[in-house]
């Protein structure tokens, strides 16, 4: 029976290692970072695109303001002289005011056009950045999916082997194992190595180690347990 318990403990340890790989595999971490990078690039791109739209709208508004001013200047230039000094002076004043306003609007539009050019270049750069991030994520995700499938297949094989070993236990031991597995949320056994529990690292007394070495462990109900993590202790 000791041999079966040891085999179960070995399988638990191997399954724990595979589960740890599934939870924290380097490829999985890289894929997560790539996903975060793509999300950040998408956020920046959205902001830059909104800025482009805002600049285009402001330029359009300036064009709408400038159109009647240009028309007013053109109309004043086309009008025939009245012969009245005051009328001509007023017309000239209106023309100068309109030209000054048009120049102001055109300067603002020019500044916005320059800003728009920069913003569009930024959008193009961010689009390339996003595409690159998405491609990297897809590659890493694909690699991780293959790795994950392989690890899950290994885990399934070990779980099947564990179930086979559990069938060799007596009914009371098998029921006890299932209960402990549920309570401990994982492995039931822990090997003692260098006088410490292999699961939690608690020092195991020489008295308990002596019992582990000398006593045959035939039932889970009487086997030594770790005082810290409550695992069933085994010694090779």
UniProtKB/TrEMBL annotation:
Pfam families: CT398_CC. This is Predicted nucleic acid-binding protein, contains Zn-ribbon domain. Residues 9-170 form the CT398-like coiled coil hairpin domain. Residues 19-44, 64-95 are annotated as: Disordered. It comes from the Bacteria. Residues 74-83 have a biased composition (Polar residues). Residues 25-43, 85-94 have a biased composition (Basic and acidic residues).
């Amino acid at each position: 029976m000791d041999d079966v318990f040891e085999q179960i403990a070995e399988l638990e340890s191997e399954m724990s290692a595979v589960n740890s790989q599934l939870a924290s595999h380097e490829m999985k971490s890289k894929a997560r970072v790539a996903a975060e990078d793509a999300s950040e690039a998408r956020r920046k791109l959205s902001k830059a695109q909104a800025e482009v739209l805002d600049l285009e709208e402001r330029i359009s508004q300036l064009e709408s303001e400038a159109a009647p001013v240009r028309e007013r200047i053109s109309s004043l230039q086309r009008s025939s002289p009245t012969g009245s000094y005051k009328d001509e002076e007023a017309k000239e004043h209106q023309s100068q005011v309109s030209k000054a306003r048009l120049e102001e609007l055109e300067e603002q539009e020019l500044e916005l056009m320059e800003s728009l050019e920069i913003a569009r270049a930024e959008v193009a750069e961010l689009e390339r950045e996003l595409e690159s991030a998405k491609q990297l994520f897809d590659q890493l995700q694909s690699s991780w999916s293959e790795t994950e499938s392989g690890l899950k297949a290994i885990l399934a094989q070990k779980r099947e082997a564990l179930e086979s070993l559990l069938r060799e236990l007596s009914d009371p031991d098998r029921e006890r194992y299932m209960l402990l597995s549920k309570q401990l949320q994982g492995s039931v056994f822990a090997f003692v190595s260098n006088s410490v529990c292999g699961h939690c690292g608690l020092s195991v007394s020489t008295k308990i180690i002596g019992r582990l070495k000398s006593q045959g462990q035939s039932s889970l109900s009487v086997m030594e347990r770790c005082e810290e993590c409550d695992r069933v202790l085994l010694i090779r």
